[in-house]
Specification:
It contains three helices and no strands. It is mainly alpha-helical and about 70 residues long. The chain has a domain of about 50 residues. The radius of gyration is 16 Å and the shape is elongated. It holds the Pfam family Eclosion.
Length: about 70
């Protein structure tokens, strides 16, 4: 019985983690639409996967998207 409970917890955590990555990548796509060539969308998506969705980019929060912004010359 205890093993079944632990297994259920592991599966639930994997689903939540997957949802966070999805939200993170959707936020990257939204920022890419907003900022166009000034935003490195692929770099943002790679960070979502690398950090398992723990660092959610918010297009209205410069601090959260600063690593993905670039200057066009």
């Amino acid at each position: 019985m205890l093993l079944a409970g632990v297994l259920l917890l592991v599966v639930a955590l994997a689903v939540v983690e997957g949802n966070n990555i999805g939200v993170c990548i959707r936020n990257c796509a939204q920022c890419k639409k907003m900022f166009g060539a000034y935003f490195e969308g692929q770099l943002c998506a790679d960070a979502c996967v690398k950090f398992k969705g723990k660092l959610l980019p918010d297009c209205e929060d410069v601090a959260s998207i600063a690593p993905f912004l670039n200057k066009l010359e």
